[in-house]
Every structure is written in C-alpha cells, then in structure tokens.
C-alpha cells in the first residue's frame, strides 16, 4: 500500500489520496451524522424523557459545543499534528456517544450531547484541514466536492437513519452504534503517518475568549427559545438574559482585538473575502440545520407520517445537495472564480423556502421544493471551503478551516434554536409529545409555514451578502506557473 509522505509533498497521487480519504472520511461522516441524527427521533425521545419544547437543544447543545472547541482543534492541529489531535477528538466523541446512549433524563442527554459536540467539532475541522494540507489548490476543488458529498449525505442521511432505527428499536442505539465505528476509525487513522507540525511558537491560550463566547451564545439562544413561555418578555429574568448576552459578546469583541492569539482570528477576518464568506456560512448553516432538524418533525406532526417515512422524505434534499456540490466543485475547478456560485445557490434555496411557507401543504410539493432547496444548499460549502483555504495559505489552514467550522456550527445552532422558537411559540400544548396528538393540525402547519418564511429571509440575505464577495481568481493568485501548465481541467 502506498503511503503519504511525512514531508507534506506539494502533490499526492490518487492512490495516496484515497488512502487518506478512507482514513478521515469516517470520523467526518460520524460528526456530520450526529448533528442531525436525532431529527426524526425527537418525538420518540420526548415521549421517553419529556420536554418536546426543549428538544431543539439536542441539536443546539451539540453545535454550540462544537463551535466553541473548533478553533482550539484548528490551532492545536497546526502546532502538534492533525492526526494526533484527530485521534484525541475521536476519543472525546466516543465517550460522549456512550453517555448519550445511557442518559435517563433530558438534562442528562443534553449534557452528554455537549460532551459529544466537544469531540465532534474536532472530527470535522481536522478532517477538512488534512485535505487542505495534502492536496494542491486546484485539486482541492475536486476533493472538497467528494467530502462535501460525504458531509451532505451524512447530514441529510442522519434523519433517514434515525427514522429507521426509531421505527424498529430504541433511539439509544443511535448513539451506541458509534462505539464500534469509532474503534474502526481510530485503527484506520493510526495507519496514517504522524505528519510534521508547523514550526511555530506555542500560542497563548485564549481561555477568556472561549468562556465569553459560550456565555454569550448560550444566553442569547436560551432567551430566544424560552421568552414568552418560561418567562415574560419584560420580566427581570428576560432582561437578565439579554443583558448577559450583550455584555458577554461585547466583551468578547473587545477582548479578541487585544489578545495575541485570539479565539476569533481577527487577522483573517480583516481579509474581505474571508469575512464575507464567514457571514454567508453563518446564514447558510442556520437555514440548513433548520430544514434538516425540523422538516422531519413537521412531516410527523403536520402530516402524521412515521419517523421512518419522514426520514425518507428528506432524500430529495440529499439528492439536490449532492448533485449541486459536485457540479459547483467542477465549475470552480474549471473557472477558479467562486463569487457567483453561492449567490445562485442561496437564491434558489430562498425561493424554495418561501414557496414552502406560502403554498398549500402537500407531500409532493414538499418533495419538489426540498430538492430545489438542496440544490441551493449544495452550492455553498465546497466553494467556500476551497476559497478560504486557498486565500489563507498553507500555514493558516487549520485556523481558517476552524473559523469556517465555527461559523457553520454557530449558524446551525442559531438556526435550530430560532426556528424552534418560532414553531413552538405558535403550537399549543408542546410540553410533552403526547399532547400533540390532540393539537390542531392546521395550527401546526401554520406555525411551520411561518418558520419557513423566516428561513427564506435568512437564505435571501445570504445570497445578497455572497454577492458582495470580491471576484477573486483563485488559481491566478495561488497556483504557480508550472502547475498551471501541467494541470488539466
């Protein structure tokens, strides 16, 4: 079997890349899968543990933990070796999976999901960084397309798998199944060479930055998901959460501008293209996770389909995302110009979400618009991942990939929390799933339609922001003359 050079060569053969692909795609698949795995299982979990209104935090807790830890993995991967840190992240993820499967109450499950997210964030960002390290810029477009397909299949396949498992056995097996998969992934990763860490001075840890981000994000999202039912809008509790969020996030911005090695890479955000793409990813992820997490719940509560069938009805979204990811990757590889690809994509998703919110509810319509929405989503991540890695350069691969992961996780958490807040605020009797059996179906459908309109507005804003990105020619700026003369499209 061929091996990948320890000296980080400029190019690798297809056989060498496939060796890397086999080793890192499983950790990435597991991390992406667990972001959405419980979407179709949510009513079943609520029936066992109670608290349907709070089940959006199953996704929010995982994504926030992932967002908080992603920059740490990015920097440590650069300094100490990405394979080593990927193995460490896999261990944390496995421990969290076991704790989730053993949870006996919703608070225990949410705490275990936070632990799982602390590992899952590293699986995602370090897998992406390994690709950026070993594949030259023009070829990254092709291989990031492959990984976008894996990520997409895992993200949308999560509800499908969850629905099948919940329909035939306990939801706890959604977590216990990770244990043998993690063991196999660790064995494959140990077959890779250790790699050569960057020769850089040890960066000073930004513990205060991580704490301020966590306090601010959790306070803001808890307020959005709780105001109006746990406490009144103008109550002291409500004002306290708002004040905490504002003070913590304001202090975070002040602190990050002065820290020598900030949690948020301010130097990268001064690059216009990276700053704009970060905002686009935030908005994109908020729409994606709102659709992936809540569309199966909408189908189960509003259309009374089974968990398994609701999962299968997400397959058109998967098909659209995979199709668009491959087409956009090939287009970027050929042209080297990323600007308009996410603009077109998020515009298509905005149209699909708007139509879901205003047209009469019908299963065939959900399938067709789901496919269009998936086509739009699939244009974003492969394009942006290649763009930011190329502009940042090899030495900052881990940091810029971590920034992208931070934006995706934060946006996903915000989208899941806000979409859930809109839906559950408009549905009567959501404290336990049993009460929903008697709920007005028209009220449920009305609530979800209003939330789809909110998601459509976010998608339209993402398209506008993407249109402000500079029209950068990636290959002209970052591919040398020899490579340009020998690389074919």
Terminus-to-terminus distance:
28 Å
> Which whole number gives the mean pLDDT?
80
| Main sheet overview | none
**What CATH architecture of the largest domain do you see?**
Up-down Bundle
Find the structural class using helix and strand composition: mainly alpha
Within CATH, the superfamily of the largest domain carries the name MFS general substrate transporter like domains
User: Which bin fits the share of residues in helices?
Assistant: over 70%
What is the CATH third-level topology name of the largest domain?
A: Growth Hormone, Chain: A
The CATH class designation of the largest domain is Mainly Alpha
Order of helices and strands: HHHHHHHHHHHHHHHHHHHHH
| Gyration radius, in Å | 21 Å
Count of all domains: 2
In total, the number of strands is 0
Overall geometric form:
globular
The number of helical runs is 21
- What are the low-pLDDT stretches, counting only 5+ consecutive residues below 50? 1-12, 432-436, 477-489
Give the DSSP E fraction (strand runs of 2 or more residues).
under 5%
């Amino acid at each position: 079997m061929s091996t990948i050079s320890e000296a980080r060569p400029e190019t690798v053969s297809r056989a060498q890349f496939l060796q890397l692909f086999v080793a890192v795609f499983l950790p990435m698949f597991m991390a992406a899968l667990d972001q959405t795995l419980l979407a179709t299982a949510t009513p079943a979990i609520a029936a066992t543990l109670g608290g349907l209104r709070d089940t959006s935090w199953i996704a929010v807790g995982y994504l926030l933990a992932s967002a908080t830890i992603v920059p740490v993995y990015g920097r440590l991967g650069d300094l100490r070796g990405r394979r080593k840190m990927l193995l460490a992240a896999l261990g944390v993820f496995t421990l969290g999976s076991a704790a989730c499967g053993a949870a006996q109450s919703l608070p225990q499950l949410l705490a275990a999901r936070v632990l799982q997210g602390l590992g899952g964030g590293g699986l995602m960002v370090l897998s992406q960084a390994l690709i950026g390290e070993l594949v030259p810029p023009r070829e990254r477009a092709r291989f990031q397309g492959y990984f976008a397909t894996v990520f997409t299949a895992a993200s949308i396949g999560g509800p499908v798998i969850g629905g099948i498992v919940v329909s035939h056995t306990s939801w706890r097996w959604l977590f216990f199944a990770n244990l043998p998969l993690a063991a196999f992934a660790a064995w494959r990763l140990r077959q890779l060479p250790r790699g050569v860490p960057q020769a850089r001075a040890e960066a000073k840890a930004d513990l205060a930055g991580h704490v301020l981000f966590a306090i601010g994000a959790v306070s803001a999202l808890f307020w959005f998901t709780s105001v109006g039912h746990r406490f009144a809008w103008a109550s002291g509790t409500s004002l306290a959460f708002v004040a905490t969020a504002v003070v913590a996030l304001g202090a975070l911005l002040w602190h990050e501008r002065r820290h020598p090695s900030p949690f948020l890479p301010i130097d990268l955000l001064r690059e216009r293209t990276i700053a704009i793409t970060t905002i686009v990813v935030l908005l994109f992820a908020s729409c994606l996770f709102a659709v992936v997490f809540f569309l199966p719940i909408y189908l189960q509560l509003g259309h009374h389909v089974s968990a398994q069938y609701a999962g299968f009805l997400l397959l058109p979204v998967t098909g659209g995302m995979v199709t668009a990811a491959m087409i956009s990757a090939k287009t970027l590889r050929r042209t080297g110009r990323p600007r308009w690809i996410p603009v077109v994509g998020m515009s298509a998703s905005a149209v699909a979400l708007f139509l879901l919110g205003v047209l009469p509810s019908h299963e065939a319509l959900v399938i067709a618009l789901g496919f269009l929405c998936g086509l739009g989503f699939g244009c974003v991540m492969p394009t942006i991942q290649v763009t930011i890695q190329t502009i940042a350069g090899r030495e900052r691969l881990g940091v810029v990939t971590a920034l992208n992961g931070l934006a995706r996780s934060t946006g996903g958490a915000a989208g899941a929390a806000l979409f859930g807040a809109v839906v559950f605020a408009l549905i009567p009797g959501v404290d336990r799933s049993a009460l929903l059996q008697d709920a007005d179906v028209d009220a449920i459908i009305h609530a979800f339609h209003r939330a789809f309109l909110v998601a459509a507005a976010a998608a339209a804003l993402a398209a506008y922001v993407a249109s402000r990105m500079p029209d950068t020619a990636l290959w002209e700026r970052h591919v040398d003359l020899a490579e340009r003369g020998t690389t074919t499209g």
